[in-house]
Amino acid sequence: MQRTGILPAAGVLLLPLLFLPGCRDSSETASVSENPADSSNGRPRVALIMKSLANEFFSTMAAGAEQHQADHADEYELIVNGIKDERDLARQVALVEEMTAAGVDAIVIAPADSKALVPVLRRARQAGVIVVNIDNRLDADVLRQENVRIPFVGPDNRAGARAVGACVAEHLQPGDQVAILEGIRTSDNARQRLLGFQDAMQAAGMEIVDSQSAEWEMSRASTVAASMLSEHPELAALLAANDSMALGALAAVRAAGRSGQILIAGFDNISAVRSAIQEGRILATADQHGDQLAVFGIEAALKILKNPDEIPDDVETPVDLITAETVAP
Questions:
Q1: Alpha carbon distances (Å) from 119 to 101, 141, 190, 258
Q2: pTM, 2 dp
Q3: Hey, how many other C-beta atoms are within 10 angstroms of the C-beta on 310?
Q4: In this structure, are 139 and 238 located in the same domain?
Q5: Residues 219, 223, 226, 228: is their CA dihedral positive or negative?
Q6: What residue spans of the chain are helical by DSSP H?
Q7: Tens of pLDDT, residues 33-49
Q8: 79 and 180 together in one domain
């Protein structure tokens, strides 16, 4: 997949950061500045607003943004924000409002919901804030209804899930039973990953016997997967729309005494799943390069800030299949 159009080299400034994955409460906000309203030397201020800080994928995303700042020390300031979990829509809306009121120049956001965040982002745009959407695409119909244009910088989630599903299908026989653990259904990336899994299973002649949302969460996925295993004793594979749910599925399979009998796949390439792939306990995942995803969005925002009348087209970023043959240590 080709990245085009809005990803030139861009400079950033790393300020003292309070975001230390694993060393702070994941329920609130991490910021590079005690007072986001403060600005120095005319540098633009960019707010990165993520989803669940408890999810390794988003802590990796923040770390990637921080590193990019460390490598480019003189061009902008960064404020890093996140919410307790991916269902905390009210808090994410509040974060957008807070950053807008603080007068940031740009917001780069991984929205927890594809529809619910659009109105507050429209208000941010009306206040003169540049907005770039990463990770989870905002709903096109709602964007049209709100009469706002917000570029999306991120991967083709359907294609990534299709690749993962096709890998699973190579290890199955036509007619085998599979089940899907979906993300939050109001999120576009959850819908796209479901469609990708369905594409692959249908193309290979598999039978999808169950598909339920586990809301991106490991514990919920373990419960849902346990029920699926009980109701469908012939189940051959569990396809999870993110790696946290894949780990939940792995726990359920182990508890059911069926380790090695059920193929499991995920999406995100977090470290625990990489280890499980190396150990043969999970078959595959998709790497959407979370350490660079926020950087892609930040660079897009910086380019728009230089030419605010030129809102670029969406940009597709890489997503790669990860298996035992390709997994990095």
A1: 15, 12, 21, 46
A2: 0.85
A3: 9
A4: no
A5: negative
A6: 56-71, 89-101, 118-126, 140-145, 157-169, 188-204, 218-231, 243-255, 271-278, 290-306
A7: 334 444 457 789 999 99
A8: no
202 lies in which domain range? Answer: 157-287
Place of tokens 């995942």: 285
Tokens of 47: 């707010």
* pLDDT tens sequence across 70-119: 887 788 999 999 998 888 999 999 999 999 999 999 999 999 999 999 99
- Output the six-digit token pair for 135: 């990770």
Same-domain pairing of 241 and 297: no
Distance CA 89, CA 109 (A): 13
Q: Please tell me the distance from the alpha carbon of residue 300 to that of residue 267, in angstroms, as a whole number.
A: 25
Contact 101, 35 (CB under 8 A): no
Question: Which residue is associated with the tokens 């924000």?
Answer: 81
Closest CA to 123 of 97, 102, 88: 97
Amino acid at 326: T
Is position 226 within any domain? yes
**Whats the size of the chain, residue-wise?**
329
On whether residue 184 sits in a domain, the answer given is: yes
Partner residues linked to 131 by β-bridges:
107
Find out whether 64 and 8 touch, Cβ atoms under 8 Å: no
Question: CATH number of the domain that 50 lies in?
Answer: 3.40.50.2300
